Amino acid sequence: MILNEAQTQAVYTVDGPLMVIAGPGTGKTQILSSRVAQILEQTDMLPENILCLTFSDAAAVAMKKRLMSMIGAASHRVAVFTFHSFCQRVISDYQAELSVLSLEPISDLETIEYYNKLIDKLELGNPLKHYKIPYFYRKQLIALNKILKQEQLEKDDLISLIEKRMEDMKYEDYFLYKRNTKDAKKGDLNPRLYNEAVEKLNRLIAAVHLCFDYRSVCEKNGRYDFDDMIRWVIDLFKTNEAALLHYQEIYQYIMVDEYQDTNKSQNELTFLLASYWDSPNLMVVGDDDQSIYRFQGANIENLHDFAGRFAHDLQKIVLSENYRSSQNILNTATHVIQKNTNRLIDDKQLLAKSNALIADGPPVVSACFNQIYECAYVYNAIEKAHSDGIPYSEMAVIYRNHEQAEHLQSYLKLKGVPFYLKRRTDILSYPLIQNVLELLEYIADEKSKSFNGEYRLFKILHFDFWEIPTVDLAKFAWFMRRERLQWRTCINELGKHPELLSLLSETAISRIAKLSEDLEYWIGKSFNLPLQQLVEKVISKGGILSFVLQSPSKQSHLQALQTFFDHLKDETRKSGSLSLENYLSTLALMKENNVALEIEEILEKGDGVNLMTAHSSKGLEFELVFIVGCNDKYWDKTKDRVPFNLRDVLYSSDDQLIEENRRLFYVACTRAKSFLKLSYNLFSLDEKPLQESVFVTELMESGIPQKKNVEIVDEQIMEVQLSLFGADTPDKNFEPLEANFLNQFTDDYVLSATHLDNYLECPVKFYYRNLLQIPSAKTGPLSFGNAIHKALELFFKFMLKDPDKNYPDLQQMVGWFKMEMDRNRDSFTVEDFTRNMEYGSEKVLPKLYGTFLPEWEANKNREPEKNLANVVVNNVPIKGKLDQLVFLDKDTVNVIDFKTGKFNTEKKKTLQPPKPDSDKEEEKFGGNYWRQVAFYHLLVNNDPLHHYRVISGEMFFVEPDKDGKFKREKIFVNDNELSFMEQLIADVYHKIKNHEFSEGCGKDNCEWCNFNKFYIRKELYRSSGLMNGDEE
Predict the structure, then answer these.
(1) Which of 43, 405, 596, 783 could form a disulfide with 426 if both were Cys (CB 3.0 to 4.6 A apart)?
(2) What per-residue confidence (pLDDT) applies to 566?
(3) Do residues 590 and 428 lie in contact, with contact meaning Cβ atoms separated by under 8 Å?
(4) What is the pLDDT of residue 617?
C-alpha cells in the first residue's frame, strides 16, 4: 500500500495527541487501519492495548475487515467499539457498582406513555398545557431531554442560563423600538416583542422541569435509554478512580473515528479515558466540513475543543489529496464550503489525485420548469450516460428528503430503468397490515357492543381477500340506504331479503355469506381465545394467508405479517394476558406518535441507479451524481431541529443551521467522481414560483459550473405525468351505480349547505357519504363541538321559555354540556374524554358566559336552532338548520353560526368571497364559511313562511385564543355575490340530479378517492388484466 506524505506522517506518528483532518476521499479509513499495524510494529503494545471508537456499527465492521486484511487474526484482539457498545462493556463489568442489574431499556412506546402521564398532570396555565392537541409538545420534550443528556446540562444551571437570556434580551436591538412612537421613545423596550420571547423561554423552563420529572419516572420504573448508558460510565469514571485506571491500563492507545460526529458526552468520555497522561496517545480523525448530524447531537465544537486542550503538543495533519473526484468537482465543492465561518482550517484545498477518472468536465447546473421537467431531464441524462458506458450502479440521484424522489421513481419504473432504493418502512402503514388491523378493530368493536363496528363493514367487504365484486357491493349499499338496515344483521340474514338476492351475483352471495360466517366466528372466539390464537385464526381461516401465498408480492407480505406477529408475541410476553382491546390501543398509540414497526424495504433490486438522501450518501462514491431539487425550500429553509428555542440560549451563532445545511450540500457534491449535475425547479407543480438554493446561487457566482435551461418535448412531459398515476393505475374516475338505482335518492332531492360543500370538495365523497349514506364513525372533535352547541342551544331556549326571559346560570349551561358529552363518551379515549370535559366546562363555557352575557342580556330577541325547509331558489329546493337568528328589528336578522376550533390563518381563507376567474380551484367558489353565509342568506330571504331579511352572517368562534379573546367574523354578501351563489346552487343541484359523481378530487388525503383507488379501481384493472404483479 502506497501512502502519500500526509498519510505517511499520520500513520507513523504513534505517540502523543494527534488530530487528522481528513477531507472527503482522502483515505482516512486506510490510515486508521495502517496506524494500528504501525503501533504494533513500532511499540511493545499488544493488539488488546489499542482502543478504536467509531460512530456507527457499519463503521466498526468496516474497520475490523480492513484490520483483518492487514494484521490477520490479531485483528480480533483489537478493541473496536462504537461508543455505546464500549459503554455496554463497562456497564457489564461494573453492574454491581452501578446498581443497574434490575434495570431494563425503555421502549419508544413506554417513553411516550411516561411523557403523556406527566403532561396529563400539568396544571391549568402551565405553558405546556395544550387542550386541542394535548401532547403537542411531547416530540420536542423527547428531543430536549436527549440534548440535555448529551450536553450534560443540569436543571439549575440551564434555568440560570435561560433567566440570564431573559435579562440580556432587554438590551438587544431586536427588542427595542427603532423610532419614536406615540407611546414610546426610540431605544425603549418593545413589550410585545419582548413578552413573546419571554413566553417561549418560560415554556422552555417548563419543559426542562418536565424532562427531569421524566427521568425520575424512568428511575422509579427501572428504565433507562442509550444516553443514560454513557452518562453512567462518565459518572463511574469520575467517582471510581480504580475503575477508570483499570481501562487506562488496558488501553494505551486510543483512536476515535468521525470525531466531528461525537456529542459532548462522547467527547468527555474520550478525555476521561486519556486523562491519565499529560500527553496521551490519543488520535482523532474527522472533518469539520462534514459534520452533518447536529440533529442527532453531534457537536462540531468538539474538534475545536480537542485542538485547544492539547495545543501545547498537538500534531495536526491535514489530508488534502483526494483519490475520488475530479479537480472541477473539488473546486465546486470547495467554493461552497468556503462560505462557512466555523471551520478549523479556512484555506483547505482538495487536490485531485485519482488516476481512474472517466472525465474532468465542469459540473452542470440545470434550471427545470418544474419537477416533471426535472424527472424527464434526469432520466434522459441517465440513459445518455448509460449508453456512454457508465453502469447504472455507478450513478446516484441525491436529494434532501425521500419525497423529492417519488416522481422520479414512478418514471424510472415506467421506463424500465433499474434503481436501488433502501429505506425503513413502517408496516403499520402497509396496506395488508392495515386491512388486518381494520378486521381486528371491527371484532373489538362488536365484542364491546353489538353494531359498534357498523361503519367499518363497507370497507371490510371490499378487501381483496374475499374477492367480492365491487359492483355487487355498490348495489348492496344502495339497498341498505333505502331500507335503513343494519349492515351486520343484513349480511347475516341475506336469505330474508329476496329483492337484495335478486340484485347480487351468485359469486357475491356466496362470498358475503362466507365472510359473515367468519366474522361471527371471530367475534365469538374473541371472548375466550388468547390473543395470539385469535389473530392466527383471523389470518388463516378467512383466506388472508392463502391470498398472501398466491400474491406476486408474497415475500414482502410475509415479511410484514411476520414482523407484525413478532410484535404481538413480544407484547403478549410483557403483559401476560393481553387483551385485543389493549393491544389495539397500543398500536393506535404507536401510529399516533409515529412509533414504527419497521422493516427494511428495498423498492427495486438489482444493478440499478442509486436513489438516496444526502445524509445516506455519506461515505459513498459514484461516477455520476445528480443532486436534484436544489431549491431553498429543501436545502436552505429546513426546520430547526433544536427544540423550544434552546438554540437561542446555548448557541451564540444564528448561522449554525445554514452552515450545517451547507456542509450537507458539500457532502452531496463530493460523492461524485467524474460528473456532477445539479438541478433546481423554477416553479412548483401548482405553478408557484420557486427560488434556487443559496448554494446554487453562490456556485453560479463563482463561474465554475455550466448553467443550462432544460427543454423537454411535450410528449415526454405527458409521459412523466402519466407515470405519476402508476403505469397500470387508472385515473381518478370510477363508475357509480346505474341511474335506475340512484334516481330513488335524487328524484326528490333537497340541497343543504353541507351537501353543497361536500360536493364541491369531492363528488366521490358526496356519493358515498351523502347519497349512499355509508356509516361513519363518531369522532372526539365532532362530539365535543356538538356538546358545546347543545349547551348553547338549551341555554337560549330556556331563556325564551322563562316567563321573565331570564338566562339560565353558568352551572346549568355546563350541566347540559356534560350531559351531551356523557351521551357520546364512546367517541373519546378515556384520557381525551377527561381532557375535553375539563376544557369545555372549566375554560370554554365559563369564559364564554362571562364575556358575552351582558351582550345577550341586551338583546334577547333571538331564535336558536332554526329549521327551514320548503324553500326554493332558482328552481332548486333547499333546506338548512341555522344555529341562531338575532333580530336587529322586526324583520332584519344577523345569522350566527357557532364554531368550535381555534381561528387561524387557514380558517381565514374560508371567509373569502369567490374569485370566479382565479386559476386556483379552491378560490373559484369562495371559502366554505362564506358559502355557508351566502346559502343562509338565500335560505332565509326566500322562506315562504316568514319575511325576514338577512343583513349579515357571523362566524362565532366559541373557543378563546391564547390571550383569552374570542374571534367573531361578520360576513356581508352583496347582490352580485348572491347571484353567483344562486347559480352555483343550481349548477351543483343539476350535477347531482344528473349523477355526476364519477370524478373525484384526486387529493392524496381524500378518504373516498383513496377508497376507490385501493378497492374499486384495483378490482376493475385486475379483472381487465391491466394490473401487473407489482401492483398487488
Answers:
(1) 596
(2) 87
(3) yes
(4) 92
Grid cell for residue 611: 436513489
- On whether the CB atoms of residues 262 and 256 are closer than 8 A, the answer is yes
Ramachandran sector of residue 257 (left: φ over 0; alpha: ψ -120 to 50; beta: rest)? beta
Residue 658, all three cell numbers? 445554514
* pLDDT score, position 344: 86
pLDDT at 655: 63
Q: Which three cell numbers stand for residue 405?
A: 424522489
**Helix (H) or strand (E) run with residue 865 in it:** strand 862-873
CB-based contacts of 310, cutoff 8 Å, min separation 6: 17, 279, 282
**Integer Cα distance of 848 and 459 in angstroms:** 41
Burial class (CB in 10 A: 0-12, 13-18, 19+), 810: middle
The pLDDT assigned to 1022 comes to 41
Question: In Å, how far are 16, 206, 207, 277, 957 from 202, measured between CA atoms?
Answer: 47, 6, 9, 44, 28
Question: For residue 24, what are the contacts with CB-CB under 8 A and spacing of at least 6?
Answer: 287, 290, 322, 324, 325, 333, 350, 667, 670
Q: What is the DSSP letter of 51?
A: E
CA atoms within 13 A on the CB side of 879: 7
The DSSP string of 544-602 is HHHHHHHSTTHHHHHHHHHHHHHHHHHHHHHHSS--HHHHHHHHHHHHHTT---EEEEE
How many angstroms separate the Cα of 280 from the Cα of each of 316, 696, 786?
14, 44, 71
Q: Which of 911, 891, 909, 922 is nearest to 955 (CA)?
A: 911
Residues 6 and 318: beta-carbon distance below 8 Å = yes
CB 304 within 8 A of CB 264: no
Who contacts 581 (Cβ-Cβ below 8 Å, separation ≥6)? 444, 447, 448
Asked whether the beta carbons of 665 and 334 are under 8 A apart, the reply is: no
C-alpha to C-alpha distance for 319 and 353, rounded to whole angstroms: 12
Residue 480, CA distances (Å) to 109, 443, 453, 769, 799 in order: 41, 21, 16, 13, 42
Altogether, the residues listed in the chain come to a count of 1032
In this structure, what DSSP letter does residue 17 have?
-
956 Cα distance to chain centroid: 32
Residue 677: which H helix or E strand, with range?
strand 672-681
- Distance from C-alpha of 512 to C-alpha of 544, rounded to nearest angstrom: 15
- 150 grid coordinates: 448529551
Cβ atoms 365, 696 nearer than 8 A: yes
**Residue appearing with cell numbers 483483518:** 68
Strands 321-322 and 706-709, sheet pairing = unpaired
Task: Return the residue matching grid coordinates 379515549.
Answer: 829
Res 49: pLDDT: 96
**Do β-strands 395-399 and 622-627 pair in parallel, antiparallel, or remain unpaired?**
parallel
Phi, psi of 198 (to 5 degrees): -65, -40
φ, ψ (nearest 5 deg) of residue 38: -70, -35
> Is there a contact between 742 and 771 (Cβ–Cβ < 8 Å)?
yes
Choose among 469, 225, 57, 459: nearest CA to 65: 57
| Whole-angstrom distance, CA of residue 462 vs CA of residue 1017 | 11
pTM of the model: 0.68
| Helical (H) or strand (E) element with 795 | helix 780-801
Q: For residues 161 and 145, give the distance between their C-alpha atoms in angstroms, rounded to a whole number.
A: 16
**What count of other Cβ atoms lies within 10 Å of the Cβ of residue 11?**
22
Residues 929 and 27: their CA atoms lie apart, in Å, by 63
pLDDT for 292? 86
pLDDT digits (tens, 9 = 90+) for 190-227: 999 999 999 999 999 999 999 999 999 998 998 888 88
Query: Which residues of the chain have a pLDDT value below 50?
Result: 726-732, 1019-1032
Scored b (16 or more CB within 10 A) or e, 749-767 reads: bebbbbbbbbbbbbbbbbb
Give, in order, the Cα–Cα distances in Å from 824 to each of 581, 592, 811, 885.
19, 22, 20, 27
The three cell numbers of residue 990 are: 343539476
Element (H, E) at 989: helix 975-993
